[in-house]
């Protein structure tokens, strides 16, 4: 009964909150009913005196785990105390990179409090995914202790989840099986009450009947099917009868995430949960996790997500775990202070951190003004590029070389229509991309974003209307399927540099190994096979390979997926300095707020809206035009045959 009640509480959570975003307009609403008030667990109320910050103490963590693990008198009593107080305990945790002597985790000692919301950050290859796999029990090849609280229910979302079942419905149904069992038993007893029975049996049956009714009422299980539908709508899941074998990797992740959230867990371990979600689905997930009573340990590159959800930031660096109390902006402040203490305040990393801190604290109006200033600087960027050789050679971070000057026409669409089978994907789409613009492409998965990109790159054509690419345009594309564009048997150095000792970036010549280093592909990593790289490392490898060709029109499809925050900041700066035009498909709201001069939004019913401004400004405009919106799965305009 206890488990069923707990599951009922989770279903109520999925079914019953109103979105009040901090970085999106308050009038943007989501499927909602009543939401019960909840207390978020924090250290203070539970354990009195706040623990000191850094190296493993405080907030969602406790350094007592470290002391207990290092003491020779560590006993069963100490283990019992840790298990009773903490949701998860790590002691002297060590993990080597497969087929290598490099320690990705080297003596990590942490303990996680119940109810803590923890965002995990660190450079690609720092051990973030390894940590979650160990905590989930998937990876058992490690030294030390990784122990959940006895009896704790642990849920894990892998980057590439494996789904059990032939259809979407078969994957979702087990998540609510216990709740359905309650309803089935209630219906069975309802029938039984019409049958003849003794007074004693009738009393026992009525007691059970009332007990089940209380459970159904408490968890709003009368609306179980609608609850499941709302969660699947919010995450834009495929139809229930869709075959798993036909789903893309992104669709499988959304199904796995929906199933995970519909279950009852004490601890959620989420590895890049926002990948393959559109921006509005990410916002829904934010609010769900913010209101979730259990513990959350989440790896994500989404900085608004870290700002809104995280109570603590766990930074993995050089094999160690460093917890920081507060959200993303608090962590930026602490890291800037640490670099100051370490006399690194003049380093490129410190300056970039300070710029980001200033940006995140700026007003929405100031953010919008910066995106508009980019358009005004286009001519200035063109003039500066030829004379920046020394600056480029010494920059030490991503640099995108400029291509030839763009003409007046980059890409124009006039009344474009495109159908796929019996679905009208694009209806009467018109826009004109200005030279110097950075255009963010947003919208639900399946709405037609990829189809539009394929038409721009010449891989597909409109059914009607005109789509013109300017004669001066020299495209560079970076797709979402990284391994399809890379040779896994090559080393990272071979793949990026293609046998050359120097890389020609427009009019500037750069040492090939130094160029790889700009993208975080340094020293030993350059000699690693591409197939052995992490997702983020492969992404950086593909970026480095693609942009060196000096195009003047970039097309990036989800470029921030799997990248660490430092690399994303470097990519942002390089795009803002790029003397050309870019079309960027992304769900990363922070990224789009920072770089976009325009938004090309797929708004449902086959409609596409072109807007001048960044993502936040677009959302404000959308509410003015359309009013409040409710999350639902993608719909299309009816296909009318002439």
UniProtKB/TrEMBL annotation:
Cited PROSITE patterns: ABC_TRANSPORTER_1, ABC_TRANSPORTER_2
BP GO terms, sorted: negative regulation of translational elongation; translation
Tree of life domain: Eukaryota
Pfam family, one: ABC_tran_Xtn
Signal peptide: 1-16
One Gene Ontology molecular-function label: ATP hydrolysis activity
Keywords from the named record: ATP-binding, Cytoplasm, Hydrolase, Nucleotide-binding, Protein biosynthesis, Repeat, RNA-binding, rRNA-binding, Signal, Translation regulation, tRNA-binding
Residues covered by the ABC transporter domain: 88-343, 411-629
Region (Disordered): 44-78
Family stated for the protein in its record: Belongs to the ABC transporter superfamily. ABCF family. Translational throttle EttA subfamily.
Name used for this protein in its record: ABC transporter domain-containing protein
Source organism per UniProt: Triparma columacea
Lineage: Eukaryota, Sar, Stramenopiles, Ochrophyta, Bolidophyceae
